[in-house]
Amino acid sequence: MAHRIAVLPGDGTGPEVVREGLKVLEATGVKLDLTEFDLGGERYKKTGDILPDSVLEELRGFDAIYLGAIGHPDVPPGILEKGLLLRLRFELDQYINLRPVKLYPGVDCPLKDKRPADIDFVVVRENTEGLYSGMGGFQYKGTPHETSTQVHMTTRFGAERAIRYAFDLTRKRNDIRQLHLVAKTNVLTFVHDTWWRAFNEIGEVDYPDIKREYAHVDATTMWFVKNPEWFDVIVVENMFGDIITDLGAMIQGGMGIAAGGNINPQGVSMFEPIGGSAPKYTGQNVICPLAAIEAGKMMLAHLGEEHAAARIEAAVVKALESGKIRSLSAGKMGMATSEVGDLVASLV
Ligand code: IPM
Ligand code: MN
Question: Atom 11 (ligand 1): residue with closest C-alpha?
């Protein structure tokens, strides 16, 4: 049976990279039944629709969602992000944002002396709580007494399910069996105390075979640069996870290759390149599609098509090792977006 995929190309360069991702997915021979949705900035500007309830209900019926990018230069910040991307994550309860950080051979790493063997870890970012809860507001807005709050909401339930997911992943990923909790327990003494106790209690009782490590988030940014080889799996709350995975993307070669999955293990998951819509490169056929291709790979693995996923990864590595792609930065690849897609598809 074909996997039913909702395709949301979205804004900016989203459609260009999604096209290449689909090309590579098709080359695997895995049967996909694709339905495209035109959600994003253009539709919002035309009709005022962001995510109609009827579309949301339809999306619940798919096996997975393949997303390009959300974000439009003519739409004020927050509207599409909150109304579309975050709403999808929350409504579909995609409580894990899974972001692998892996340096492939043939990719330029900005860190001196670091090799592919040194940079290969996975960040498990909690994806529905923390500062993203949307709780808070203004008091006396526009006056000298203006007050604003943004609540860092943490539930034991939310922390626990992310932590359990991360422990399970650590167990099956390799023989290293080491999980880092990244937080800021010395300052966020309430919300991160919940995380700290959940991490240790769950680890002690249910995962005695996994070594538990802890790093403050500020120190983590330092270790990502200095000793990325220390990490195997990281579990982290939402906002800190957002921040450290941009740094992670840079040490694996940049937004041109960084992909992620918004996972609901019991529901509909959504896969995306983690970079934005890159409006200034829209329509120029110069943006690197490897991140979208990698997102497609993660989607196949999630759908149980591990073999096809491994073939995509092997093809990406071969394409990179061929030396044909000069850089993963937009406009510097020495190849067009579509040519990179062709190259990878030909190697699958
Ligand atoms: C990401 C993005 C989003 C986030 C934005 C666009 C809302 O930065 O996927 O990392 O903060 O999660
Ligand atoms: Mn981000």
Answer: 242
